[in-house]
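stage 2 :: seqdesign
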């Protein structure tokens, strides 16, 4: 469903400089210095309305969570959520994740999250999938050598495609779950989509991968 246009979004983002970084490329290689954070950096690509990143930041105050969301009318909801929670270890970016190397230096990120990414099911759109090899190139570049990527989705087709893509790239599959909620992981933070789909009885798939060194 297309997000409703919010004409006030630009001003709202500018009015929350403690949460939103409007010039993220200026911090390439210096994210550890932002807000005097000397903490590991965990990056969520496709933050949506912010439920996951806020929940993770609440669980892990020793980590600096950076969330990227390209849709302005959606990221404002994440900003509102973070503002209400008072969490200081979250930074949000309203950017496209097409070229992460413009935003992060090599080996700067400790962990990446892909939550319920657009599956782009048509073959002609394969290169848009966030687990296509050109994206994997970027993840490997900005991740530390021991960094990991964690993916969650309800889309089995995308999940199967991603497992193959990871394997062909030389990634190591550290975890593969075909029904995440059966694991009863007490540290799992659900996204808005995850709550919606799991309530319908749909399985949630999760994998955790590390990149070749």
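stage 2 :: out
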């Amino acid at each position: 469903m297309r997000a409703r246009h919010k004409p006030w979004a630009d001003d709202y983002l500018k009015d929350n400089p403690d949460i939103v970084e409007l010039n993220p490329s200026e911090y390439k290689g210096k994210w550890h210095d932002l807000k005097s954070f000397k903490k590991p950096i965990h990056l969520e690509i496709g933050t949506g309305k912010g439920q996951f990143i806020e929940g993770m930041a609440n669980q892990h105050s020793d980590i600096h969570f950076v969330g990227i969301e390209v849709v302005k009318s959606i990221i404002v909801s994440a900003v509102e959520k973070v503002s209400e929670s008072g969490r200081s270890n979250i930074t949000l970016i309203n950017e496209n994740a097409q070229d992460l190397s413009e935003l992060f230096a090599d080996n700067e990120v400790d962990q990446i999250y892909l939550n319920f990414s657009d599956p782009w099911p048509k073959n002609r759109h394969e290169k848009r999938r966030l687990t296509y090899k050109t994206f994997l190139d970027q993840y490997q570049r900005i991740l530390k050598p021991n960094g990991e990527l964690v993916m969650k989705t309800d889309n089995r087709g995308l999940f199967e495609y991603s497992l193959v893509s990871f394997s062909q790239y030389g990634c190591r599959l550290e975890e593969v779950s075909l029904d995440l909620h059966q694991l009863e992981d007490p540290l799992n933070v659900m996204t808005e989509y995850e709550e919606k789909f799991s309530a319908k009885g749909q399985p949630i798939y999760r994998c955790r991968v590390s990149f070749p060194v």
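stage 3 :: structure notes
- The helical segments are 9-14, 51-59, 72-85, 133-142, 156-169, 192-199.
- The mean pLDDT is 94.
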